[in-house]
């Protein structure tokens, strides 16, 4: 098998040599032109006169001036609801076979169209991920090992003329035939809808597999690995999967989970970040000397960037009318932007909900900095999720604890506001001391937070709870496993409901 692996590795290396990365700016203009040309006779294309836009000397500017930015609600209420009702040629040619049910942190009831063209783009991105993996200097034998993809159930919901499921389940149900020999847990297990039952079956079958790579959201991968280790009475996962070398992560920041995950390994893995959303495969980490991810400039998605500040984004995290929107050609490195995408699934200038920074424009590399609605600014504190994660890493070091999950909100104390944090923790130091340390760290590293603390933000409280409480809440109020993510920032009303849940289940 090692010989076969070396042949595969050389084939991948040769493929990479003959397929060079395109110029990102040129590729993006070509992608936009193809999107407009393909969709010009749809209802959306006619409404915004794509045929006329295609005649423009500056197609990107013309597109930006004519077509407004959309969030999900605007896209659904004006266009996508017709697709659910069975209409065709609405925002993309043809009808609709699949809808991705959003499993994001802001809503559990979004219906995102997934066209055949998008599935093809996701497959192409997946192949790109495989060809790029050789940059991580893996041994030839790795390329004969199996890949465990822990996503949502591949048992999709049949509704009239279409099927519904989470994007990971839809993608896995459309894997190419040649990949079947590498893919685990296999369709029979992946079809199991109940998360606990699916993980139990994975634990039973795990000794029969030779896994080289795991893919999935960290929280659920960790729960799965713990179940496998417990069921098979192991000390660590490498006792049954000695060839496990790679973990492709995504969905949330990985660093909060690194310490606890590595307790389940005999040795650290190679960690590769990915950016697969319900709306498409956005980016992948292409090289080991950076944690940034490269956009796919020539794969059915046109990217735009809105400066993430009060002049361009409102208090609800939505792009303001008339906001300055930049293409990749005009965007700058190391500036925080709201990401907009137009895609081969018929999303147009669509707010995906993430904020990003371009770290290397020539390579079209980005890093995710947070969520537009997970930005705590009720009293001017301007805290991003990245800043929150960084502060919690300091707390972990100071108190020798592990904090993987958290939820925070600005809540009233009389007429004033405080920030209230629920933190998952493997130990339970004094809440007041943790709050003081967290407050001090945030004040030192965020000048807006420091100003707010001297004005409207009157205090900070922390409450340390077992991480299982977050997952139990997720199970009771949403669903468990797959691509489901724990929200980081809540509005006060929703936060108080979570607090009540904690009280009732403590």
UniProtKB/TrEMBL annotation:
One Pfam family assigned to this protein is GH3_M
Q: Which GO terms describe its molecular function?
A: acid-amino acid ligase activity
UniProt domain GH3 C-terminal: residue ranges = 390-494
List, alphabetically, the GO terms of the cellular component aspect: cytoplasm
**From the record, what ranges are coiled-coil?**
none
The record's section on InterPro entries has: GH3, GH3_C, GH3_M
This protein's name: GH3 auxin-responsive promoter
> Where in the numbering of this chain does the GH3 middle domain appear?
298-361
**Natural source organism:** Dyadobacter psychrophilus
């Amino acid at each position: 098998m090692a010989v076969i692996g070396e042949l595969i590795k050389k084939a991948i290396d040769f493929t990479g040599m003959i397929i060079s990365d395109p110029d990102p700016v040129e590729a993006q203009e070509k992608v936009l032109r193809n999107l407009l040309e393909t969709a010009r006779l749809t209802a959306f294309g006619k409404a915004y006169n794509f045929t006329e836009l295609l005649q423009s000397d500056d197609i990107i500017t013309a597109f930006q001036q004519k077509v407004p930015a959309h969030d999900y609600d605007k896209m659904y209420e004006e266009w996508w609801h017709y697709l659910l009702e069975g209409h065709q040629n609405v925002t993309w040619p043809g009808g609709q076979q699949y809808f991705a049910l959003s499993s994001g942190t802001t809503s559990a009831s979004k219906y995102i169209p997934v066209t055949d063209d998008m599935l093809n783009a996701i497959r192409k991105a997946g192949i790109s991920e495989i060809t790029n993996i050789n940059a991580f200097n893996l041994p030839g034998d790795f390329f004969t090992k199996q890949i465990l993809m822990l996503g949502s159930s591949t048992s999709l919901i049949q509704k009239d003329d279409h099927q519904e499921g989470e994007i990971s389940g839809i993608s896995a149900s459309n894997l190419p035939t040649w990949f079947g020999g590498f893919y685990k847990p296999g369709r029979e297990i992946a079809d199991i809808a109940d998360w606990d039952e699916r993980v139990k079956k994975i634990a039973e079958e795990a000794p029969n597999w030779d896994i080289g790579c795991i893919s999935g959201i960290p929280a659920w991968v960790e729960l799965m690995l713990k179940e496998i280790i417990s069921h098979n009475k192991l000390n660590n996962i490498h006792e049954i999967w000695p060839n496990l070398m790679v973990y492709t992560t995504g969905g949330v920041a990985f660093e909060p989970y690194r310490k606890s995950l590595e307790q389940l390994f005999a040795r650290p893995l190679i960690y590769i970040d990915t950016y697969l959303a319900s709306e498409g495969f956005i980016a992948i980490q292409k090289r080991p000397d950076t944690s940034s991810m490269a956009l796919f400039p020539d794969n059915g998605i046109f990217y735009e960037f809105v400066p993430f500040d009060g002049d361009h984004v409102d208090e609800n995290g939505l792009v303001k009318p008339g906001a300055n929107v930049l293409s990749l050609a005009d965007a700058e490195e190391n500036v925080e932007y709201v990401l907009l995408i137009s895609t081969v699934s018929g999303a147009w200038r669509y707010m995906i909900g993430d904020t990003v920074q371009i770290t290397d424009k020539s390579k079209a590399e980005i890093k995710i900095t947070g969520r537009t609605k997970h930005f705590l600014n009720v009293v001017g504190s301007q805290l991003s999720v990245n800043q929150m994660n960084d502060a919690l890493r300091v707390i972990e070091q100071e108190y020798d604890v592990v904090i993987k999950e958290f939820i925070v909100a600005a809540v009233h104390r009389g007429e004033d506001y405080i920030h209230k944090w629920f933190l998952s923790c493997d130990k339970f130091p004094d809440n007041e001391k943790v709050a003081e340390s967290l407050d001090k760290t945030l004040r030192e590293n965020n000048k807006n937070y420091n100003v707010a603390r001297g004005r409207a933000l009157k205090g900070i409280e922390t409450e340390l709870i077992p991480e299982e409480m977050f997952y139990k809440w997720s199970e009771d109020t949403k669903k468990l496993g797959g691509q489901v993510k724990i929200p980081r920032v809540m509005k006060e009303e929703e936060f108080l409901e979570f607090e009540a849940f904690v009280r009732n289940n403590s």
